[in-house]
Amino acid sequence: MSNSPKQKLEVPPEISRSWLLLSARSTDKFDSARASRTDQLILDLEDGVDPNYKNEAREDVLEWFAGGGSAWVRINPRSTEFWAGDVDDLAGVKGLQGVMLAKTEFPEEVSETFDRLGGNTPVIPLIESALGIESAVAIAQAKGVFRLAFGSGDYRRDTGTEASDLAMAYPRSRLTTASAIAGLTGPIDGPTVSKSHPVIRDQSETAVSLGLTGKLCLDVNQLPVINECLSPPPADVGWARDFIAEFDARGRIVRDGSDLPRLKRAERIDHLARAFGIEPVRY
């Protein structure tokens, strides 16, 4: 049996579970973060960087990209003086996988960002305010939108909402509904500040129950729990593959109205399991 380390799976961003947010000032951690268990890495030019060092941080990111690095970048809001520098310097840069647009409130902010980046860079609007939540459907349908993300901390500060599951169910559900209307993958939830694995697990499972399919995270130690919670359970994978095999064995003949919805669910679970490297368990 080989003792060589297991190669990291490259999970497509369309279905990525964990999105590790790292300050663009933390240049010494770029490589290790990219090699971690996160599905996607986001280098943060917004809240993670003091305004006095925005230009320097952007240069550090560009230098890392020039050396072969690759990641997403959270850029500054359209309403700030830093937005233009972010999009102009990042446009066409090799290694840039996409951008997360902070504090998005209007669809035009997304389309302008997409166009100024050259018209082929995916944009994830980070929705962080009451206005953004109420504009979620229009934002989700804007040109260039890849997935939606929830800035839960700033949303709570904007609305005075508590962090309880009940209080946060409405904005999360709004983003899930908007994503479905626009034909997008389920949204990316905001980060859990606590480092407690039980707390991370509880919040991740709540997000999944509301239709969110990804989660921002702030610490590499959160990644195993997030990835597990946002993956199909091995028992579900076993059911899915058994159902698909049985459906194929009978010539894909539909017996009743439940067959096609079950098939769709089974195929989705199977697709995710293969992408995440999850082996089935059968009881």
From TrEMBL:
Residues 19-218 form the HpcH/HpaI aldolase/citrate lyase domain. One of its GO terms (molecular function) is lyase activity. SUPFAM superfamilies: Phosphoenolpyruvate/pyruvate domain. The keyword Transferase does not apply. It comes from the Bacteria. Transmembrane segments: none annotated. InterPro entries: Aldolase/citrate-lyase_domain (IPR005000), Citrate_lyase_beta/mcl1/mcl2 (IPR011206), Pyrv/PenolPyrv_kinase-like_dom (IPR015813), Pyrv_kinase-like_dom_sf (IPR040442). Its cofactor is Mg(2+). Keywords: Lyase, Magnesium, Metal-binding. This is CoA ester lyase. It comes from Gulosibacter sediminis.
